[in-house]
Design goal:
6-stranded mixed sheet; Purple Acid Phosphatase, chain A, domain 2; 2 domains; 6 helices; 7-stranded mixed sheet; disordered N terminus
């Protein structure tokens, strides 16, 4: 009888714990919109700081969110490792800033990175080569693309290296040695070719540097913009996701392209609004995107598990 009573207590405790966890879990995602049969992915940028500046807390929220909206992949908008990138595929930062931070069971899927300026202060080729060591880090080259199906329509994902479009970086080969000898026109022609030859209904680009911002760099001109914006307009690209600014923003100038800044993966900077701003907030967070054939839903979620912004693009 004592054994049965003990077993019953264990079962009751298990049920209580499960219900308590479910209640807490549900509370965290209470304002999250879930779209049935959608193709989901996350976007996070400027994150690799050994778990500091709420990086770890945000990773936990990402894991919780992924239990409800399961992402097919996680895209990064660069500055994956501070302050000076990684030295090799065996650099300790791979463990302290990536593997041991985004370790939740719901985050063990493919990550598709782009490079940031801080990554260029280290060994950029090591981030590409890590794809051969890691089962989830998928970065085949400095820039790459692939297409997926959304029911009857296609969605194109293009991951670019916007550092190559920053003219000022070439003046400092000591800071950005991996840019020595790089011709940005080669990548521009590649981007133009990929977009020209794609029959995808939805076209989404990921990079690091911004085209528009109301954040801390709002007063300066974007070097990337003069290279990239003409292509975005020419091909009616739907979304350009970037980082570089340590905040969350949604900017919509005239034309087809929406500009989302998702650079709030760890340390923050002040942000603000500019002429075309729809949203801006300086808080650690990421973007959860749900795609259907006729619409895209972008939700910004902060490190406390709160959905702080939602926007739907219909097409």
């Amino acid at each position: 009888m004592k054994i049965k009573h003990f077993a019953f207590l264990l079962f009751s405790l298990s049920v209580f714990t499960s219900l308590s966890f479910t209640s807490t879990f549900a509370q965290k995602i209470d304002s999250l919109t879930v779209i049935n049969k959608s193709y989901n992915f996350y976007v996070i940028g400027d994150w690799g700081r050994n778990g500091s500046f709420n990086q770890r807390e945000l990773a936990d929220v990402m894991n919780t969110t992924a239990g409800i909206i399961w992402p097919r992949f996680i895209a990064t908008t660069g500055d994956n490792f501070y302050e000076n990138g990684v030295a090799s595929i065996d650099d300790p930062l791979w463990m302290s800033s990536f593997e041991n931070v985004y370790s939740g069971g719901n985050l063990l899927m493919e990550w598709h990175p782009t490079l940031g300026n801080h990554d260029y202060k280290g060994n950029t080729k090591a981030q590409i080569k890590y794809s051969h060591k890691s089962r989830r880090w998928k970065m085949p080259d400095y820039y790459y693309s692939y297409t997926e199906m959304l029911d009857k329509e296609k969605i194109l994902f293009v991951f670019i290296d916007s550092n190559q479009f920053e003219d000022s970086y070439y003046k400092h080969p000591d800071r950005y040695p991996d840019l020595i000898g790089v011709d940005p026109q080669i990548q521009l022609k590649w981007i133009d070719s990929v977009l020209t030859n794609s029959d995808a209904k939805w076209k989404i680009l990921f990079g690091h540097q911004h085209v528009y911002t109301g954040g801390s760099r709002a007063e300066g001109d974007s070097e990337t913009a003069k290279y990239l914006e003409p292509l975005l307009k020419k091909h009616s690209v739907d979304i350009y996701f970037c980082g570089h600014e340590h905040d969350l923003q949604h900017i919509k100038p005239e034309g087809e392209t929406h500009y989302f800044v998702s650079g709030a993966g760890s340390q923050l900077r002040p942000t603000g609004y500019m002429e075309y701003s729809l949203f801006a907030k300086s808080v650690q967070g990421f973007c959860a995107v749900s795609a259907l054939s006729d619409k895209l839903l972008v939700q910004m979620i902060d490190y406390t598990g709160k959905v702080i912004y939602k926007y739907t693009i219909e097409k």
